[in-house]
Amino acid sequence: MDSVLSEDPVALKILIAGGFGVGKTTLVGAVSEIKPLRTEEVLSDRGIGIDDLDGVEGKNTTTVAMDFGRITIREGLVVYLFGTPGQERFWFMWDELSYGALGAVVIADTRRLTDCFPSVDYFEQRGTPFVVAVNCFDGAARHSIDDVRIALDLDDDVPVLLCDVRRRASAKEVMIALVEHSLRTLASAN
Amino acid sequence: MSDSPQWLDEEAGPVVRPYALIRGRTHPSGDAFDLVATVRAIGDPPSGELGPEERHILRAARGPISVADLAVELDLPVGVVRVLLGDLRDQALISVTSPPAVGARSNERILKEVINGLRAL
C-alpha cells in the first residue's frame, strides 16, 4: 500500500447530487476549476417516452454532460468532484460514479425537498457516507435543520448543514463536513 | 452563391463523429477503466499507425493523468477515450492503475490531509 501511495497519485471521488437546478454546478464551481465532462451512455428503458426516438430507433446512446471538478490538495493527492446527472433516467451511471467514492453531498432545496429523496435513498442503500447541504436560496423559507432531518427521515449521524453554494467559504465548509463525516464513519467501522 | 462550399464552425458538431474514431466500438478491450484511474505513457515511442487522438493521449499521459482529465483534454466522450485507452494498453503503450476500491478513502492519514487541504483553499 505504501509503495503504491508513494508512486501513484491518490485520487479521491466525491459526488455532488440533488435535484435539477438545485445548485450542483454552482457548488462544484465554487470550490474547484469546473470542466464539462462528456459521457456517451447507453440509453436505458427509462428514456422511453422521454427521449423522442422516433425515426432514430437504432440510436441507443445519448450524450450526457457531467460537471467535473478537481481540487489538488498537494502533488499526488487530488480530490475529484462529479456532479451526478439529475434526471432519473441517468441513474445507471451512478453505480460507476459511486464505486469507491469517498462520499457524497446531497444538495436540498426546502421548496422542493422531495427532489432529493431519491439521492438520499440511493446513498443510504449503498452505504456511501453523505451529508445533506440545504441550499439557502434567496427568498426560500428557512427551515430548521431539525425539520429537514425529520422530513428526510435521516439517521442521527448524517450531518445536515445550511449553506449558500455560491459562496466559496460556504461550499468549502460543506466539503470539509463530508470528509470529516467519512472519517468518523471509518473510525466507527474499525 | 449557393455553389460556394459551406464552411462549418464548431457549433455544427465534430466533422468526424466520435464513435467513427473508434470504428463503432463502445467497449474497450479488457477491463473497464475507472474515471479516476491513473494513465501513464510507457514503452518505446510508437512507430507509425497511431491516430492523432492516440498520439494526443500519449502526449498528455507523459505524466500521470486521470481518465476523466484525459476526456476533458481530448474533448471526447469518456466512452470513446476508454476504447482508445484499451487499444493503447493492448499495444503496451500505456499503463493504467485503477484506484483501490476502498484503499484511499479508508486511509485516515489521507482523509485528515484532505480536510487540512480544503481548509487551506
UniProtKB/TrEMBL annotation, chain A:
It comes from the Bacteria. Keywords: GTP-binding, Hydrolase, Nucleotide-binding. Pfam families: ATP_bind_1. GO terms for molecular function: GTP binding; hydrolase activity. PANTHER family: ATP/GTP-BINDING PROTEIN-RELATED, GLIDING MOTILITY PROTEIN MGLA. Belongs to the GPN-loop GTPase family. This is Signal recognition particle receptor subunit beta, a GTPase.
UniProtKB/TrEMBL annotation, chain B:
This is DUF742 domain-containing protein. It comes from Nonomuraea jiangxiensis. Pfam families: DUF742. It comes from the Bacteria.
